[in-house]
Amino acid sequence: MNITLLNLHPPPADLVRLVDEGLRRSPRQLPAWMLYDAEGSRLFAEICRQPEYTLTQREITLLEDHAPAIAAATGPGLVVEFGIGNARKVDPLLTALGSSVFAALDISLSALEEALSGLAARHPKTAMVGICCDHTRLPQLPPHPALEKQRRIGFFPGSSLGNFTPEDAVHFLRNARQLLAGGPLLLGLDQPREPALMEAAYDDAAGVSASFAHNLLQRLNRDLQGDADPAQFRYQASWQPQQQRIEMALISRRDQTVHLAGNAWSFRDGEAWITEHSVKYSPGAAAALVARAGWRIERRWEDPHQQIALHLLLPAN
User: Fold this and answer.
1) What is the pTM of this model?
2) What is the pLDDT of residue 11?
């Protein structure tokens, strides 16, 4: 297989410091990426298969239906995906563009290896380059013959930008604009819908979303010699209309003390430990967000249910 892996050796996260900072906040909140150890990644893939969570399949269908039009609008180039995520999503885009090179950026070397192996089998004529890095902050592609003198097309599907605060989202989009060196960015964003539907998508009847959140405690117990009892926290997903986001949290069932890395953290009965947010962007909010980062929306493709849209962004000047 034609796969190259470039390891930029992103520094390991200082979990002790980040947990200390996050649990001193009010309300308490840790970075959402902490949810994604091996078991967390497995559980998230299972969430995407639940009947309430329609976002993934609708975005894949949107890409499959409109890939030729998207390719015509972007023009040819090297596809650069920010975070390899669900590798099925880039499949129709690579086919429509006939790209000779695909570059995937991700913090996880194992995720890159697994995703690119599957893609290479389906696109044997496309050179696959995996770059292990902090894909939210990489300012330039590393030097490599396959990446040189190529027009770049960014790809950031899955509404992953919704996990960022608006300020962090603007920072990411500005950084992507620099990395793409004048090339376009195809950005997936999901939209506000009926609150009950959104809450159900993040709190499925099978309880997989709850298991995903509780796994954060298991991960911290393992990595930081902790004693957090998942049974003493209930999971909650709620729509916050003012911020236009779903907030996911673990709610303490009683007054309790959790020990992590030698520190003791007291939780009151009913106190929230936020695991992540998912911001939803209306068409107007999406346009305002990208404008702050120096982009403009050239084209937009929306699924028939008005849940997810793909936005083709071009530099504003």
Assistant:
1) 0.95
2) 86
